[in-house]
Amino acid sequence: MVLIWTQFGVKNKNVNVKCKVRPMHRDDSSNSTSSGESKSDQEVPCLSIKPMGKDFYKVLGVSSDSNEDEIKRAYRKMALKFHPDKNSEADAEDKFKEIAEAYEILTDPKKRSIYDQFGEEGLKNGGGMSMSGQTNSPHYSYHGDAHATFSSFFRGSDHFDIFFGTDADGEDDLFNPFSRFTFSHVGGGGGPHGNDGLRRGRRRLQGLAVIQELLVTLEEVFHGCTKRMKITRRRLNPDGRSLRMEDKVLDVVVKKGWKAGTKITFPREGDETPNNTPADITFVLKDKKHSQYKRDGSNIVYTAKITLKEALCGCTVNVPTLDNRMMPLPCSDVIKPGAIRRLRGEGLPHPKMPAQRGDLVVEFQVLFPDRIPPQSREIIKHSLAKC
User: Fold this and answer.
1) Does 1.10.287.110 match the CATH number of domain 56-162?
2) Across 157-171, 314-328, 329-343, least confident range
3) pTM listed for this prediction
């Protein structure tokens, strides 16, 4: 008879099984085996067992001895290719999640070590299997947010800006889904776990936030206001698959003194798809051009036009305010072009302290005559002889 016993040597992804074989004769005693190994013992390969489950190296298109930088480069390439907001193929989302899962495991030294030794089953079994092949610890399953993994990987990098089309001013362009929405001004001054084909326990992805400019006048910023904005968006029908178009009016509250660039976000009020939670809608304040003022933070600048005579001889300028008053501004000194005067506390409210206000800055523009009569020229020469 032949007695075979095995020793397991584990390396990389494959479990290489080697057998030590020693021939035994019928007349050998069962107790005659010495504690040492016989010289006739031979160690020969017996069989090679490949772990069952996904080949995460193959998913990312890298070899099993790839370093972390190579894995990151491969993930960047694959994630950009299969991101659902860029790839419209039916299986793009599943592929994207599989890529994220592979990246999470292969960039975690502990998980990668377990995976290299025991494969995906080893991860599910907590790093090992019992002799009967049954699990001996809780199952591992991927519960990551593929979109969050993607965003955290690319956030702050050139690749994120290129993919999402974000320019220096924070505006979305290339792949901005804003074009899917219709906005109009109509007056007035999913749970954490998904369904519908997603694997149980996985979080649903969320579409990119929709950015929309919200024009406001300086008077609206001065007093505060509520803007009613009508949107048209896609929503799921009760069957969880088909979509319908629906209108909704959002009340955007603009508080006193808010500056241009202030963002007001309505969570999950945008488009919804079977596999995504609704996108956020963000309104970004933008000052509407004013006929009389320019804005400078909490200050407003008013240009007062005066004649050369008024600039030299003095005058009183009536300055309009945002709350429809006229403020007299006496000027007895000579006023040079570009000179400024301030009306303290007549500007816009400070956004953090609305009870305090900026200044109304009066900038003078001197209007020179096109011509001077000869007799007036002589008088001016005589009057300004010592100037």
Assistant:
1) yes
2) 157-171
3) 0.47
CATH class of 293-383: mainly beta
pLDDT tens-digit readout, 318-335: 999 999 999 999 998 999
In the chain, CATH 1.10.287.110 sits at 56-162
CATH 2.60.260.20 region(s) of the chain? 176-287, 293-383
Smallest Cα–Cα separation from 369: which of 282, 303, 310? Answer: 310
- The pLDDT of residue 385: 78
CB 147 within 8 A of CB 164: no
Q: N- to C-terminal Cα distance for the chain?
A: 128
Query: What is d(CA 63, CA 121) in angstroms, rounded to the nearest whole number?
Result: 20
Which residues have a Cβ under 8 Å from the Cβ of 342 and sit 6 or more positions away?
359, 360, 361, 362
**What topology is assigned to 176-287 in CATH?**
HSP40/DNAj peptide-binding domain (2.60.260)
CB atoms closer than 10 angstroms to residue 5? 9
- Give me 147's structure tokens: 């979109």
Strands laid side by side in the 225-236 sheet: 182-185, 225-236, 243-254
What CA–CA distances, in Å, run from 183 to 34, 81, 178, 231, 239? Answer: 88, 31, 10, 5, 27
Contacts of 96 (CB under 8 A, 6+ apart): 79, 82, 83, 84, 87, 146, 150
Tell me how many degrees the CA angle 11-17-19 measures, rounded to the nearest 5.
140
Please, which residues have CB within 8 angstroms of residue 97's CB and are 6 or more apart in sequence?
A: 142, 146, 202
CB atoms within 10 A of CB 82: 21
What string of DSSP letters covers 309-324?
HHHHH-EEEEEE-TTS
